[in-house]
Design a protein that fits this description.
Layout (H helix, E strand, L loop, with lengths): L5 E5 L3 H11 L4 E5 L10 H16 L3 E10 L5 E3 L16 H7 L8 E11 L7 E11 L14 E3 L2 E2 L5 H4 L4 H15 L1
Parallel strand pairs: 1-2, 1-3
Antiparallel strand pairs: 3-4, 3-5, 5-6, 6-7, 7-8
Helix pairs in contact: 1-5
GO molecular function: dITP diphosphatase activity; ITP diphosphatase activity; metal ion binding; nucleotide binding; XTP diphosphatase activity
EC number: 3.6.1.66
Subcellular location: Cytoplasm; Nucleus
C-alpha cells in the first residue's frame, strides 16, 4: 500500500493539530476535519480503533484520529481513556480542572503517571486501522505554567511541566511526539 499524500486528522483541537503538523513536518499533508464521533468505553486501543473506523466511514477516505490519556499509577491507570469524559474534564471551567486532577492523588504517596497518546490510521471504509502509541513517564504536580493546553501544567517530566516547556522542547519528548514518530517512520517506509 502506498502511503497517503493527504490525511484528514479528525480533531477540533487546534493545539493538537499544530503539534502534530510540527512533528510530522512535510511527510504528509495533514488536513483538519472536526467530526463529533461517538466514543465507546473500553481500553485505550479499543476506543482508538473504533473511533478510527467511524471516522473513515464518515470521511470515506484516509483518516487519522488521536486519543490522549493521563494515567495515574496509584489509581491503576485512571482516569486513562476517560480523561475527557464528563467526570474528568480537564478544563478549568469544567468538573475537575487541573488542580482537581492533582488533588486526586493527595492521599497517595505515588504521584507517578504516564501521558499516553494513541494515533490510529485507517486508509478508508472497510480497512482495519493501525495503531501508533507513545508513552511518556512523569509525575503529577501542582499546576505550574500557562493553562492554555489541557493538563500540561500538572504533568512534570524531568523537572519541568509540559506547560513550562517551549513547544519545540515538548515536541521532542512528549507522548504525542513518540506516537507520531512511529507513524512518521511507517509513512516513510510504506
Amino acid at each position: 500500500m502506498a502511503p497517503p499524500k493527504q490525511l484528514f486528522f479528525i480533531t477540533g483541537n487546534k493545539n493538537k493539530l499544530a503539534e502534530s503538523k510540527a512533528i510530522l513536518g512535510d511527510v504528509v499533508d495533514l488536513q483538519c476535519q472536526a467530526i463529533d464521533l461517538v466514543e465507546i468505553q473500553g481500553t485505550i486501543e479499543e476506543i482508538s480503533l473504533d473511533k478510527c473506523r467511524r471516522a473513515a466511514d464518515a470521511v470515506k477516505g484516509p483518516v487519522l484520529v488521536e486519543d490522549t490519556c493521563l494515567c495515574f499509577n496509584a489509581l491503576k491507570e485512571l482516569p486513562g481513556p476517560y480523561m475527557y469524559g464528563k467526570s474528568f474534564q480537564y478544563e478549568e471551567s469544567e468538573a475537575v480542572g487541573t488542580q482537581g486532577l492533582n488533588d486526586l492523588l493527595a492521599g497517595f504517596p505515588d504521584k507517578s503517571a504516564q501521558a499516553v497518546c494513541t494515533f490510529a490510521y485507517c486508509e478508508g471504509p472497510g480497512h482495519e486501522p493501525i495503531i501508533f502509541q507513545g508513552r511518556t513517564d512523569g509525575k503529577i504536580v501542582p499546576p505550574r505554567g500557562p493553562t492554555n493546553f489541557g493538563w500540561d501544567p500538572i504533568f512534570e517530566y524531568e523537572g519541568k511541566t509540559y506547560a513550562e516547556m517551549e513547544k519545540v522542547e515538548k515536541n521532542k519528548i512528549s507522548h504525542r511526539f513518540r506516537a507520531l514518530e512511529k507513524l512518521k517512520a511507517w509513512l516513510q517506509e510504506a
